[in-house]
């Protein structure tokens, strides 16, 4: 899922500034569960914002709230928010950068304020209560030959032919020998599977056009996949 | 390897025991230090490595000093190239320039991560890594093309070396990584600092199927503080307890001079031992105190062939 981190409340207040009519929009997707962008956080943000404006600036502002199924879906955003948007000055998006931009795309004359900093694509470990970045959307997945460990994301240098000299006892020098060296993980996994041939395999330099922004993609259909 | 372009490779292929040295251009516009360092090493080593922003410190680029020591001092350079600061375009262009000014040896390195350096906010490049850099150099030299098969007029003639760490823990992935590069075509290996012959022999045994000449890296310590710094901050350096202890004792008994003398004796003896192993030579890294290199070699009694 997309992992976000809420901006400090004061920064959010600064961005809202003198606006009188605020619509706070949450998302039921990635940020809705276990992150600070679902309906609960939208309600909380609404209370805090109302109180803060009252106490700090001694004025009342009008706040509306909504939480949409997926803020990254243009049609869902359009149909869910259109009935609420009329007298709104600013929209405070509690979703990721895609959600905030989708609102800005649909309602071009509305100012959209991001409540979150969008961090990475990650895995959620609910037991450890942590999120781990596992994918960089590099456009050329080689997980099948790296034991299911992504070196582009989990190696600090994104090496295709690691490990480098900056590992010791399987830990990476970047960040002070705390994080795992992805290439030692890859080595261990491939060895376990008796596939060290994949480890020793030389990988040519990547084609960075696969990561050339802005990327776009036409929908693909099952029929097309089967045809090829 | 079919052709020999450099003195370094000539000596290695003739089976001579070789010494290489190392110089580190720093944050300066003065070439004085590298020229003086090269003069000190000349006659004692067959070639001198010139470092490329070591541990991610932004220093004078390595190509100009590599060229200058060849031109002005008459000692061959091993031009170190890392992948941290330049993409494949910039590296290709620097390699062309290196070929243009007569550089014959390249040490292909991945490069330390920017966060360990003196501008830790910098963006890492790593468009290539040490393996893909070897691949690029091979294509330039052997096929006269760049990575994308674009033809090079008057292709360069380089020998390509790689780094390795005999102390690597675990060692197996390190060996497999060397194997990966060996298949591409590597002329020599220079290693991270080693302090005992057992580590050397274990490494040589693990590498024996690859048949690449290995120069074992040694790094004398200018002071006890430098030793401590090395152990703490330079990845892959393992200084055995007895070496640490003997240097600490030498410091207590004879101060700085005691440490220098102990270094000369310890590394001189070590070189003597290495001469009797399967290594092709020794790479001596004594940055900023190159004067110790002739003394160590002299003490070892091993002739620079």
Overall mean pLDDT of chain A stands at 94
Q: Which structural class is indicated by helix and strand composition of chain A?
A: alpha/beta
Q: What is the CA–CA distance across the termini of chain A?
A: 29 Å
Instruction: Give helix and strand order of chain B, one letter per element, not per position.
Output: HEHEHEHEHEHEHEHHEH
CATH class of the largest domain in chain A: Alpha Beta
Task: Work out the number of β strands of chain A.
Answer: 9
State the helical fraction of chain B: 40-55%
User: If you consult CATH, what is the topology of the largest domain in chain A?
Assistant: Rossmann fold
Main sheet of chain B, how many strands, which sense, barrel?
A: 8 strands, parallel, barrel
Query: Mind telling me the C-alpha Rg of chain A?
Result: 22 Å
How far apart are the termini of chain B? 21 Å
The largest sheet of chain A has its strands arranged as: 3-2-4-5
- In order across it, which strands form the biggest sheet of chain B? 1-2-3-4-5-6-7-8
């Amino acid at each position: 899922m997309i992992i976000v981190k809420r901006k400090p409340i004061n920064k959010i207040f600064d961005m809202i500034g003198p606006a009188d009519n605020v619509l706070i929009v949450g998302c039921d997707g990635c940020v809705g569960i276990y992150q600070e962008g679902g309906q609960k956080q939208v309600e909380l943000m609404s209370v805090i914002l109302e109180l803060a404006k009252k106490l700090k600036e001694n004025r009342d502002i009008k706040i509306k709230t909504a939480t949409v199924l997926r803020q990254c879906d243009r049609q869902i955003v359009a149909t869910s928010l259109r009935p609420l948007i009329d007298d709104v000055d600013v929209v405070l998006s509690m979703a990721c950068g895609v959600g905030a931009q989708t609102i800005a795309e649909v309602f071009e004359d509305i100012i959209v304020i991001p409540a979150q900093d969008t961090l990475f694509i990650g895995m959620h470990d609910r037991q450890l209560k942590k999120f781990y970045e596992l994918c960089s959307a590099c456009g050329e997945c080689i997980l099948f030959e790296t034991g299911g460990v992504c070196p582009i994301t989990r190696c600090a240098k994104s090496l295709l032919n690691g490990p480098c000299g900056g590992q010791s006892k399987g830990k990476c020098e970047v960040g002070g020998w705390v994080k795992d060296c992805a290439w030692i993980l890859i080595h261990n996994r491939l060895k376990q599977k008796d596939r060290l041939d994949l480890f020793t395999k030389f990988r040519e330099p990547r084609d960075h056009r696969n990561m050339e922004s802005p990327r776009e993609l036409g929908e693909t259909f099952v029929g097309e996949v089967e045809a090829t | 390897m079919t052709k020999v372009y450099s003195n370094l490779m000539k000596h290695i292929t003739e089976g001579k025991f070789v010494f290489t040295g190392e110089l580190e251009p720093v944050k300066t516009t003065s070439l004085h230090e590298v020229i003086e360092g090269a003069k000190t090493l000349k006659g004692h080593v067959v070639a001198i490595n010139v470092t490329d922003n070591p541990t991610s410190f932004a220093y004078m680029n390595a190509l100009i000093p590599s060229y200058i020591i060849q031109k002005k001092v008459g000692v061959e350079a091993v031009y170190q190239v890392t992948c941290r600061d330049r993409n494949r375009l910039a590296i290709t262009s620097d390699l062309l320039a290196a070929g243009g000014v007569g550089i014959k040896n390249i040490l292909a390195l991945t490069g330390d991560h920017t966060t360990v350096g003196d501008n830790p906010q910098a963006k890492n490049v790593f468009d290539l890594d040490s393996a893909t850099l070897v691949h690029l150099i091979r294509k330039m030299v052997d096929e006269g093309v760049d990575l994308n098969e674009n033809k090079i007029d008057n292709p360069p003639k380089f020998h390509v070396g790689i780094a390795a760490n005999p102390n690597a823990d675990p060692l197996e992935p390190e060996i497999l990584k060397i194997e990966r590069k060996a298949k591409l075509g590597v002329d020599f290996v220079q290693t991270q600092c080693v302090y005992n012959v057992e580590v050397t022999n274990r490494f040589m045994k693990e590498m024996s199927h690859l048949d690449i000449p290995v120069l074992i890296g040694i790094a004398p310590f200018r002071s006890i503080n430098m030793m401590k710094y090395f152990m703490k901050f330079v990845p892959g350096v393992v200084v055995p307890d007895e070496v640490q202890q003997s240097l600490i004792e030498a410091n207590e008994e004879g101060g700085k001079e005691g440490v220098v003398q102990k270094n000369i004796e310890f590394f001189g003896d070590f070189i003597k031992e290495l001469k009797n192993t399967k290594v092709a030579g020794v790479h001596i890294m004594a940055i900023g105190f190159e004067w110790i290199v002739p003394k160590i070699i002299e003490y070892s009694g091993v002739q620079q062939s």
